[in-house]
Amino acid sequence: MSSIRNSRTRLLTAAATVALATLSLTACGDGMGVADAGASVGASSVTTESKESKESKESKESTDSAKSAESTSGSSGSGSSSDDAKQAAVTSKPAAHAAASNTSAAHAAATKAPASKAPASSDKVVTCEGSNTKTVAAPLNRPVNHMLLTVTNTGSDTCYLYYYPAVRFGEAQAVPPVIEESQPQAVVTLEPGESGYASVNLSAADGSGAHGRTEKDLAVYFYGRSGSESVGKGARPSLPAKGVYIDDSLTVTYWQQSMDDAISW
After folding, report:
1. Host H or E run for residue 110
2. pLDDT given at position 126
3. Pairing relationship of beta strands 195-201 and 188-190 according to DSSP bridges
């Protein structure tokens, strides 16, 4: 019985000792342990907040600096860029104009190039006369006793051959009459290089003409628009060395645009 009681006493003592040890450990964990954890969390939180605050401040300062630099660059740089753009535009305009002019100049030079060596024509129209034409006199075999006058425009302006040639052989005091039926419907117009024609009936084919003679000198004069008198310079075409035979039946045709029309009379 005493043995059982002693054993029970030991068990209770041991249990009490374990309980006290447990309470001691619990009190230690609730105190220093919590305090340490709390201190650790607090320090970490403060440290994190300090870092975040510092980084936020640095980021803000960096952003403010960037904005300030951008503002400064924008106010001066944009003006510079604008000025440069304006200057480039001003500079490019003459270059573009010159290129267009050169193009316009290149395109204009190609279209005005002469197609041949013939004198260039202008809008001016003048009277055909000795100074701007060349006259050739050629006796014809058919029709017999006829001579063809060919007048070529050697000038640079279009010219009009008005009426008919005023021909004068040798020392004649008057010009021969014109064949009225030969008058064309329009005035003969000669562009530079073109020719007009008239025929001269030298003598009667049947020999009925009076006062026949041989002449070696010929002058051709040109009428103006009024037809009342000759204008400008006369022409002196060459005649054959033996001369040409004429008589009082001498007549001329009006100037014609074609040779066939001229020799048909």
Report:
1. helix 34-111
2. 96
3. unpaired
Element (H, E) at 53: helix 34-111
For residue 244 the two structure tokens come to 């040409």
d(CA 220, CA 231): 11
Residues of the chain where predicted confidence (pLDDT) is lower than 50: 1-5, 7, 9, 11-57, 59, 62-63, 65-82, 84-119
Evaluate whether 180 touches 147 at the Cβ level (below 8 Å): no
pLDDT at 120: 53
In angstroms, the CA 247 to CA 43 distance is 148
Angle at 138 between CA 132 and CA 141, to 5 degrees: 155
Q: What is the CA radius of gyration of the chain?
A: 63
252: number of Cβ within 10 Å: 24
CB 224 within 8 A of CB 130: no
- Residue 198's nearest CA partner among 247, 165, 221 is 165
In the chain the first and final C-alpha atoms are separated, in Å, by: 189
Query: Cα 90 to chain center, whole Å?
Result: 21
Q: What pLDDT does residue 124 have?
A: 84
Per-residue pLDDT at 80: 43
168 Cβ neighbours under 8 A, 6+ residues apart: 175, 218, 219, 220, 221
Asked if residues 144 and 200 have their Cβ atoms less than 8 Å apart, the reply is no
Side-chain half-sphere of 223: how many Cα atoms within 13 Å? 17
Burial (0-12, 13-18, 19+ Cβ within 10 Å), 14: exposed
Q: Return the SS3 of 92.
A: helix
Give the span between the Cα atoms of 227 and 15, in whole angstroms: 165
